[in-house]
Amino acid sequence: MVKLLGISGSLRRGSYNSALLSAATRLVPPETTLEVASIRGIPLYDADVEAQGIPPAVAVLKDAVVAAAGVLLVTPEYNNSIPGVFKNAIDWLSRPASDARRVFGARPFAVIGASPGGFGTTLAQAAWLPVLRTLGAQFWAGGRLPVSRAGSVFDEAGNLKDAAVEAQLKQFLAGYAAFVRRASA
Ligand SMILES: Cc1cc2nc3c(=O)[nH]c(=O)nc-3n(C[C@H](O)[C@H](O)[C@H](O)COP(=O)(O)O)c2cc1C
Questions:
Q1: Which pLDDT score is estimated for 185?
Q2: Which of 11, 72, 119, 163 is deepest in the core (most CB within 10 A)?
């Protein structure tokens, strides 16, 4: 069994990225699970707060990452880059620095994302690359999934209604899960 963890970088109730992650949980290949973790409750990074201990919401997310064989980041795009709330969460996960290797070291990550615009988070996805490299994670580059025009891809309830995107997501997950399986062997 390949155990994956997905994290959406949006806190919005009607988030397209959370909807994309939710769809992904149903489209993983056989012998694969995709659990959903949340960045909700993670405070703004403050070294003075860290000096008093890792906040509980951060510790919970770190444990979830460590328990997973691979992590799927589902990223919105803000101003052609990573949204601050999402980057803030990953920054917290990298603390203390002495623990970053346990959380990220050689762990296979992949990135997808959805946007109502025409470019489907390609720049935000690219912006994650130097971050993941710095953290020593592995990155699966065998597929790309920039979901554009998200307003017509999901219905009002957040269900994925676009058959082409569904097929692309399924193919992406199959490739990524196979990579994680090889990495964990
Ligand atoms: C501050 C801000 C900046 C944004 N910049 C971009 C952008 O550069 N590219 C883009 O495609 N969408 C941009 N958007 C629109 C987001 O893609 C849109 O709000 C999307 O719904 C966010 O993802 P979510 O639905 O998962 O919350 C921006 C939105 C905000 C609030």
A1: 84
A2: 72
